[in-house]
Amino acid sequence: MALLSIKKLTKTFGGLTAVSNVNMELEQGELVGLIGPNGAGKTTVFNLLTGVYVPTGGSIILNVDGRQKSLYGLKPYAICKAGIARTFQNIRLFKDLTVFDNVRIAMHQNVKYGLLSSFLHLSSYRKEEGKLKEESLEFLQIMKLDGKKDELARNLPYGEQRHLEIARALATKPALLLLDEPAAGMNPAETAQLTELIEWIRKQFRLTILLIEHDMSLVMKICERIYVLDYGMLIADGTPDEIKSNKRVIEAYLGEDVSNA
Amino acid sequence: MKKLIGIVLTFVIIQLLISTNIINSYLQATLATICINIILAVSLNLITGFTGQFSLGHAGFMSIGAYTCAIIVMRIPTVPGFLLGLLAGAVMAALVGILVGLPTLRLRGDYLAIATLGMAEIIKVIFTNLEITNGAAGLSGIPRFVNWAWLFVFTVGTIWLITNFLKSSHGRACISIREDEIAAEAMGINTTKYKVTAFTIGAFCAGIAGALYASYFYFLKPGTFGFLKSIDVLVIVVLGGMGSISGSILAAILLALISTLLQAFPELRMVIYSLLLIVIMIFRPQGLMGSREISLSVFSKLRGLLPSKKGRE
Fold it and tell me: Which pLDDT score is estimated for A252?
C-alpha cells in the first residue's frame, strides 16, 4: 500500500471550493512535485495534509511501517507525530531563538523526561538533553549550519533560513516531508545546490518528499512524478516529460490557444 | 557553585542587616513585598513573557492561595499547618488555573487578557460574598509564621524551578508557542497542552505568593487582589523585560525601592512613579533587560575591562 493515499479531498471556504476531489498517491521513497498556477490550491493541499485546515470531505491515509492511520481531523501536532513534517512558503522559523534551539524544539516530541525532571534537572534530564544536543548538531551539520548554531535565526541570510527550516523539519524524524516552495527567492546557483541537497537528504533519510515549486528547472530535474493542480482540481499527473507536453497543463499556465478557439 | 555562594551571601548580608536593625520593621515589609512580587512577576513572566499568553488574572490566583492558606492556618496555627495551607493554596490556585485555562487559552492576545481579567473579578466577588472568608471585611489575625528566611527560601526556590523549567525541552516548547504558534504546532508541539501547563505552573507559584502574603501581613481583604494588583505585576514583567527572569527580579526590587523612597512625598508619589514608568518605557521599550539574562559571566567580563595588576607592572 502507498505511503500516503488521498481520496476525494475537498475543502470549501464558504462558497469557494479551494480544493475539489483531489486524489493522490505517494509511494514509499518517491519524490513527487505538486505544481500549478498561482492560487491553484497547492498550499491549501499542504495545509489539509498537515491539519492546519480540516478537510470538508475526503480521506487522507498515512501508512508508515505497515500501520495505517487516518489523518482526517487530527491536530497538526498529532499529524507531525504520525510522520509528516513540512516547511513553509513564507519562512516560519522561531526567529528570536538560536539556530540550535530551533532544531531542538522540533525534537521535543521524542523527549522522554517528564515535567518533574525538567524542574529538578534529574539524571534523566541530563541524559536526554545530552542526546538531544548530539542529534540536533548532526542535523545542523548536514545543513552546514553547525558553525552558526548560537546565532539567532532572524540573523541568518535568507538561503540559510530556508536550510534551517529543512533541518528543523528533518529533526521531527518524518516519513514524509512536505516542502512548500523551497527554492523561492533563490538564485540559479543556490537552486542548483538545493536540488542536490534535496536528493541527498531523500537518500540519506529514506524520505518520501512532496514539493510545491514554481521553479521548473528544479521540478523537472528531480521529481519522478508530478501532479498538476488548477482551480483546485487535478488536471494531470505523470512523469516530467509527460507533463511538459500535456495540453491541459500548457493551457492552465499559458491560456488557451486562440487560433484553435 | 558560584551561584550558590552568591545566594547564601545575599541571605547572610540581609539577615545581618535585619538583626542589627539597619533594616527596620518598616523596611522589612518592603523586603517582603519585594520577595512576593518577585515570585508573582517571575511566574507571570512564564505565562506572558515566555509562553506569550497575555494574562491579566494573576491577582486572582494569588488571592486563592492567600485565602486557602489563611483559612487552614487559622484552624491549625502551627508551622506544619502553615506549610499545609501554603501547599493547599498553591494546589487550589493551580487547579483553578487548569479549569480557567482549558477554555480560555484557545483565545488569543487581547481576548485572553479580557477573559482572564473577568476570571480574576469573579474570584474577587466570590471571596467578597463567602461566609468563610468573612466577606468584604476580610480575615484578620492570621497567625504569622513567615519571616525573612521563609520568604527568601520560597523566592529563590521559585526562581530556581522556573529557570530550570525554561531550560528544559518542555520549557522550550512553551517558548516556541510565543515565537510562532503555527510553526510550533507543525513541529509536533501540542500547543494547547503547553499553554495550559505554563498557565498552571504560573498559577501555582502565584498561589505560593498569596500564601506568603497572607501569613506575613496577617490581614486579607478581597479588595487587595483587584485588577490593580494584576496590573502591578504586569508592570514589573514589562518593565523588567518580557522573557527575562533577571529582568523581573530587577524590576520588582527597583519598583519597590522607588515606591518606598517616594513615601516621603505622599502627594507626588504616584505622579513621580508613573512618570518614571513612562520615561523608562520611552527609552527602553523592550524593558530593562529585553529578553536577556544577567549571568555571572557579566561580572568576569567587567573584571576583564578593568586594568589588571599584571598589566600595570
Answer: 87
